[in-house]
Design goal:
single chain; mainly beta; 9-stranded mixed β-sheet; globular; 10-stranded mixed β-sheet
Length: 252
C-alpha cells in the first residue's frame, strides 16, 4: 500500500523535507505533525490531515495534493502553503500566521476559520481569494476581548461571502455603537452576505449588526439590555419565586 498513517506525534525540528514515499503515496495524519525551524519545510507526498498540523515557525509547504479534515494552526510569522489550485478546508484553520497556495489560487472554507490561539485573539491572513462556500457553508469565528483586542481575518484579494459568523465574548463589555472591523479584503464578489450571526457568552439581549463596507465587514453592537430591564427581570423572577413558595405552603 502507498498509504502511511500515523496517530502519534511527529516533529520536524529542522528544515528538512518530509520526502517521497512512492507514486500516489498518501501521508494520513491522525496525531500531531509539528513543523519547527525558521526556513522552508516541504511535504512532497500527498497529505491527508485528520489530526493536528502545527506550523510553529517558517513555512510548511505541501507540494503534492492535500486535504484537511482536522486542524491546522499557524503561529504568528509562519505560513502554511498548499499546492492545490483550490485549497479546500473541511476542518479548522486557526492561528495568527498566513495561509496560501503556490498558484495564488482560491481558498475555500467549508469548515471553521478561527483567528488566534486558545485564550488569545489574533490576526489571521489569507493570501489569494477566500471563498466562504455557500453550497457547504462553514463559519468564521471571532473573539472580542475589548475595542482594541479582537480577532481579525485579512484577505489579500477578493472574498465570496457565505456561511455564518460566530462572535464569542472574551471579556468585552458590550456598549451600543461599538464597532469591530473583523474581515478585510480587496473586493466582495457578487454582493453576497453571511447567512447569519451567532453570539456566545454575551447573555440574552446583546445583538450585533453586520455592516458590509467596500473593503471590510464590520460588526456593530446593536442592542444591550438596559439596567432597568435587568432590574425588572430580577424583580419578576422574585415575584414568581414568592408565588411558588406561597402555593407550596397552601398545599402543605
Amino acid at each position: 500500500s502507498n498509504a502511511t498513517t500515523t496517530a502519534s506525534n511527529f516533529i520536524l525540528a529542522g528544515n528538512q523535507g518530509a520526502g517521497d514515499t512512492g507514486a500516489g503515496a498518501v501521508f494520513s495524519n491522525l496525531g500531531s505533525f509539528v513543523k519547527q525551524g525558521g526556513a522552508i519545510t516541504e511535504i512532497r507526498t500527498n497529505l491527508d490531515n485528520q489530526g493536528l498540523v502545527k506550523v510553529d515557525a517558517g513555512t510548511l509547504t505541501v507540494t503534492s495534493a492535500f486535504t484537511n479534515g482536522g486542524q491546522i494552526e499557524v503561529a504568528a510569522g509562519a505560513t502554511f502553503m498548499g499546492s492545490n489550485p483550490i485549497f479546500v478546508n473541511e476542518g479548522t484553520l486557526a492561528g495568527r500566521g498566513s495561509y496560501a497556495t503556490h498558484v495564488n489560487g482560491d481558498i475555500v472554507n467549508r469548515g471553521a476559520i478561527i483567528p488566534g490561539t486558545a485564550g488569545t485573539t489574533g490576526l489571521l491572513s489569507f493570501v489569494g481569494d477566500l471563498d466562504l462556500d455557500e453550497a457547504t457553508p462553514g463559519t468564521l469565528n471571532f473573539d472580542l476581548a475589548s475595542l482594541t483586542d479582537f480577532d481579525v481575518i485579512a484577505v489579500s484579494d477578493d472574498v465570496t461571502l457565505g456561511g455564518g459568523i460566530v462572535v464569542s465574548n472574551a471579556g468585552y463589555n458590550a456598549v451600543i455603537g461599538d464597532r469591530f472591523v473583523v474581515l478585510t479584503f480587496d473586493q466582495r464578489v457578487g454582493g453576497a452576505t453571511f447567512t447569519g450571526l451567532t453570539t456566545q457568552g454575551f447573555g440574552a439581549g446583546v445583538a450585533f449588526n453586520v455592516i458590509y463596507n467596500l473593503h471590510d465587514v464590520t460588526l456593530e453592537v446593536a442592542a444591550v439590555p438596559e439596567p432597568e430591564t435587568w432590574g425588572m427581570l430580577l424583580a419578576g423572577l422574585g415575584m414568581v419565586g414568592v408565588a411558588v413558595r406561597r402555593r407550596r405552603l397552601r398545599m402543605a
